[in-house]
Amino acid sequence: MNPLRKPILAANWKMHKTIAEAASFAADLQEQIGPLTDREAVIAPPFTAMDAVSRALKLEGYSASAQNCHWEVKGAFTGEISTVMLKDLGCRYVLVGHSERRHIFGETDEMIRAKTAAVFAHGMLPIVCVGELLVERDAGRTSDIVAKQVDKALEGLDSALAEKVVLAYEPVWAIGTGRTATPAQAQEVHAFIRTRLESLFNKEVANRVRILYGGSVKPDNVDALMAEADLDGMLVGGASLEVASFRRIVQFKS
Ligand code: 13P
Questions:
Q1: What phi, psi does 165 have (nearest 5°)?
Q2: Alpha carbon of 62 to ligand 1 centroid (Å)
Q3: Is residue 1 pLDDT above 80, yes or no?
Q4: Which residue has the least CA distance to atom 7 on ligand 1?
Q5: Which atom of ligand 1 is nearest to the CA of 100?
Q6: 3-state secondary structure of 168
């Protein structure tokens, strides 16, 4: 663990859980783990359960994240939710540019840049997701793709904001497939992203930005992933839906 970067273990529930299920998960998780000081646990429920989750998360080290937002403050955008509304709900983080948003819902790098700026503008922290498709990896284009996504998402930020960004490297081929990147594969891309941050901003920013890994993270691979120097946390889908497995991930041993 790098003392400049407190690890984040984040649960992305995607389109799962009712309000009652979400609230009891949040209560049980805190009861089983207790307060956290050397790491953060973050829960990203669906919007419908956000109020219940953010009220239920009371202990130190726990906070709520949204899974998405719109970039405008208000207006005629049927079905969308703004960052002002999310702040109102008690969110600390907002996921931006998740691969399912990019690839199923057609989000562009420009939308993701605008969302990142909107999250900061309303006092929350973006968790900006990047990652290559399998065909892109096989074609040797991983660095190009990830660099473009990082460059574009952070465009226009000054260093003071940039160091507060959280990035999540989620290779699309590892999401929901059971095919985790090896610790070495993940570390290679994380180190590349950190070097990129140094060239976009400076060494200080590069050393402070937390870069999470996501893609088939499970209780039995979290320790090996977290042992890598540039992995500062995990963004977890399937294995975050049960208290027992997410608890083990929060309690990773490095
Ligand atoms: P899985 O952990 O289910 O592979 O999902 C990863 C993810 O998309 C987290 O945002």
A1: -65, 145
A2: 20
A3: no
A4: 237
A5: 8
A6: strand
Query: How confident is the model over 228-248, as pLDDT tens digits?
Result: 999 999 999 999 999 999 999
Amino acid at 99: S
Question: Closest ligand 1 atom, CA of 14?
Answer: 10
64: CATH: 3.20.20.70
Residue 2 lies in a domain: no
In a domain, 83, yes or no: yes
User: What is the average per-residue pLDDT within 198-202?
Assistant: 98
H/E/C letters for each residue in 188-251?
HHHHHHHHHHHHHCCHHHHHHCEEEEECCCCCCCHHHHHCCCCCCEEEECHHHCCHHHHHHHHC
| Residue 2: per-residue pLDDT | 86
Convert the pLDDT of each residue in 164-193 to its tens digit: 999 999 999 998 888 888 999 999 999 999
Q: How far apart are CA 60 and CA 40, in angstroms?
A: 9
Could you list the residue range(s) of the whole structural domain that residue 78 is in?
Answer: 8-250
Q: From the CA of 16, how far away is ligand 1's center (Å)?
A: 13
**Which of 16, 98, 105, 170 maximizes ligand 1 atoms within 8 Å of its Cβ, making it the mutation to test the pocket?**
170
pLDDT at position 21 over 90: yes
